[in-house]
Design goal:
The chain is of the alpha/beta class. The chain has a six-stranded parallel β-sheet, sandwiched between helices. Strand 3, helix 3 and strand 4 form a beta-alpha-beta unit. The chain is globular and about 55 Å long. The two termini are about 15 Å apart. It comes from Flavobacterium omnivorum. Keywords: Kinase, Transferase. This is Polyphosphate:nucleotide phosphotransferase, PPK2 family.
Length: about 250
């Protein structure tokens, strides 16, 4: 099996997503990958016990990626060995009426991990500089001062949001939250094949949504905004890890 160094995937300099690979073959059989994944899951479970006893740090794992990039599968496979009382998964959807009465980071603060525990954000606070950039009309639902129309949302607005996200992550890391951010890099062609499989394989039909097709039409916009968000918010204390998909069982690289 090809040796993998996670630091090779850490974003420390500006990146261009179009120039980065979306797949990686580590030269191992599925059985070997499965064994490695089991070892990783076991080590994480042991680490969870140590962190719980230490009671000083919490871990926030942020997963971002286009539809079908494998976020749910990663969570299921990598964290299946955890004590269920020590890990919480939050999947952030469209803000509800109560959440819209607060600033956009409020609901993310509420979901942060307790000391000694792990929290996984399946889609994250980065949706506020991703989907809202593709669909800026969503910002109007926040009833922000000075924002009456989409025309009021200028580049400075987005620069401020990037700074706010950096400050959010700086604040929580200084108060005992270890932040690990993962972008699951998927090609448009691979997404097409995965969407088709959801239609063709009966057991996966429930995963298919016409909304996925509508968002796929904005692929280039999403890639542009993902790239900008990664480049603006990957820091020493809250690094972004950009992983190409492996040929099946890819989570062994974690």
């Amino acid at each position: 099996m090809k040796s993998i160094n996670p630091n090779d995937f850490k974003v420390v300099n500006p990146i261009e997503l179009s120039k980065l690979p979306t797949n990686l073959d580590i030269g191992a059989s599925d059985d070997k990958k499965e064994d490695k994944l089991e070892n990783v899951s076991s080590k994480l479970s042991d680490l969870q016990d140590v962190m719980y006893a230490h009671n000083r740090y919490g871990v926030l794992i942020c997963l971002q990626g286009m539809d079908t990039s494998g976020k749910d599968s990663l969570i299921r496979e990598v964290f299946k060995g955890f004590n269920s009382r020590g890990v919480v998964v939050h999947s952030f959807k469209t803000p509800n009426s109560a959440e819209l009465e607060h600033d956009y980071l409020w609901r993310h603060y509420l979901a942060l991990p307790e000391k000694g525990k792990f929290t996984i954000f399946n889609r994250t606070h980065y949706e506020n500089v991703l989907v809202t950039r593709v669909h800026p009309e969503y910002i109007l639902n926040e009833n922000l001062p000075g924002i009456a129309t989409v025309a009021d949302i200028n580049p400075e607005f987005w620069d401020n949001r990037m700074e706010q996200i950096r400050n959010f992550e700086k604040h929580i890391t200084q108060n005992g939250v270890i932040v690990l951010k993962f972008f699951l890099h998927l090609s448009k062609e691979e997404q097409r094949q995965r969407l088709l499989r959801r239609l063709e394989e009966g057991k996966h039909n429930w995963k298919f949504s016409t909304g996925d097709l509508k968002e796929r039409e904005h692929w280039d916009e999403y890639m542009q905004h993902y790239e900008e968000a990664i480049n603006n918010t990957s820091t020493e204390k809250a690094p972004c890890m950009l992983f190409p998909l492996m040929i099946r069982k890819w989570p062994v690289i974690l």
